[in-house]
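User: Sequence recovery, please. Input:
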């Protein structure tokens, strides 16, 4: 998934990626996802027109082998479950719950597909590790993450693994030769089994030594897997050891319960895969495990949530809407606040607002009156707020959320 700053950026990225795929003669295709239409360089684009099929089919097509890249601006950053998704290139400001939800698109189990933790990474061109840490901290209460890893750690890991004697280098060479010649599994398995037998019985390793070897092997596979995905390397021995260890690791049993737990942690998808610098692919984001209080999705606009700081009720209402729906509306949070306040003032200036809504004691008639007022205001501002009007007219869930938000804002700000 390529995450861009705007629909216009998404369209330009899409076109550039199409050209790259064509120039390289690669067999797969790229998709784009955005709501409504967008004029770029005098040409009006829609998702359906660019992809060649209806919007509702985009997520279905992305599951097919023909499509490997999805370019987005806001759409599909939340609520999109695609287990095959393994990489995200970010060229957009991500903050708060949107950052957590967007990056979590990668956190989907895919055991049947062979998706491993080393296959998952984020390459971020826009946000700093401090930004991401600030976004994730309020939601984090689990085990701390490992230290930052420099690319040179692979030299150290390989030396340690070689010295244990679990495998002979001739076996690594033999396995790779047969593996890439597409030999049958029955030919490959005995090579792995010989190394596993040494690990289990012949070397008479202590349980802690076995655990240490397996964890270091998993670290090597994980770190090299991330690097090889985005950087060219000419150290062929790393590549050969990577493939050998990928098949050997599942054959290495360990008994220490505490190490088992750590081993399981190393197999999970976590933020240590968040790459920020070209020479620091395993950049760690250490999260604060102290108690945090997070506002609910629909906070009480008159209450304080775990803080003595006074908050503008309008900001709390906007924040509640933004956390769920901002991904479909291409405006910055600041612009969104301005637009919301402008809509609120237009609603309050409507000739029926006070008589038929504000001073109406019948809740049912009151709601009907507000809906009519809201529709009138949206129709009046259609030209100025075309993107918002399209969402309001076409997306029922968005319409309900916006309706409720405007109702609350009009009530508390009068």
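Assistant: Recovered sequence (414 residues):
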């Amino acid at each position: 998934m390529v995450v861009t700053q705007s629909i216009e950026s998404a369209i330009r990225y899409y076109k550039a990626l199409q050209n790259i795929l064509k120039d390289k003669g690669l067999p797969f295709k790229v998709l784009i996802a955005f709501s409504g239409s967008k004029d770029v360089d005098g040409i009006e684009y829609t998702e359906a027109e660019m992809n060649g099929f209806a919007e509702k089919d985009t997520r279905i097509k992305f599951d097919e082998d023909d499509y490997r890249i999805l370019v987005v601006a806001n759409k599909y950053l939340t609520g999109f479950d695609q287990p095959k998704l393994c990489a995200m290139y970010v060229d957009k400001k991500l903050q708060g719950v949107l950052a957590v939800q967007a990056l979590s698109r990668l956190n989907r189990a895919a055991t049947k597909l062979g998706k491993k933790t080393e296959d998952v990474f984020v390459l971020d061109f826009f946000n700093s590790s401090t930004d991401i840490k600030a976004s994730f901290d309020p939601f984090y209460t689990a085990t701390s993450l490992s230290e930052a890893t420099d690319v040179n750690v692979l030299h150290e890991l390989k030396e340690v693994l070689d010295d244990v004697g679990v495998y002979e280098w001739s076996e690594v060479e033999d396995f790779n030769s047969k593996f890439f010649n597409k030999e049958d599994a029955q030919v490959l398995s005995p090579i792995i089994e010989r190394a596993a037998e040494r690990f289990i019985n012949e070397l008479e390793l202590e349980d802690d030594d076995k655990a240490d070897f397996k964890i270091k092997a998993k670290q090597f596979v994980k770190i090299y897997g991330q690097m090889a995905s985005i950087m060219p390397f000419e150290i062929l021995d790393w590549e050969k050891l990577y493939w050998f260890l990928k098949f050997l690791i599942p054959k290495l049993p360990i008994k220490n319960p505490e190490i088992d737990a750590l081993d399981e942690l190393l197999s999970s998808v976590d933020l240590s895969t968040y790459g920020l610098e070209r020479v620091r692919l395993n950049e760690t984001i250490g999260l604060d495990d102290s108690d945090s209080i997070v506002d609910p999705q629909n906070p009480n606009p008159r209450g304080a949530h775990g803080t003595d700081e006074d908050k503008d009720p309008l900001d709390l209402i906007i924040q509640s809407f933004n956390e769920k729906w901002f991904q479909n509306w291409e405006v910055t949070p600041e612009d969104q606040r301005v637009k919301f306040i402008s809509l609120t003032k237009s609603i309050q200036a409507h000739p029926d607002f006070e008589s038929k809504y504000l001073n109406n004691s019948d809740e049912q008639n009151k709601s009907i009156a507000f809906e009519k007022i809201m529709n009138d205001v949206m129709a009046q501002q259609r030209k100025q707020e075309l993107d918002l009007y399209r969402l309001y007219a076409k997306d029922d869930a968005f319409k309900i959320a916006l309706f409720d938000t405007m109702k609350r804002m009009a009530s508390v700000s009068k």
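Residues 123 and 230 are 9 Å apart (CA to CA).
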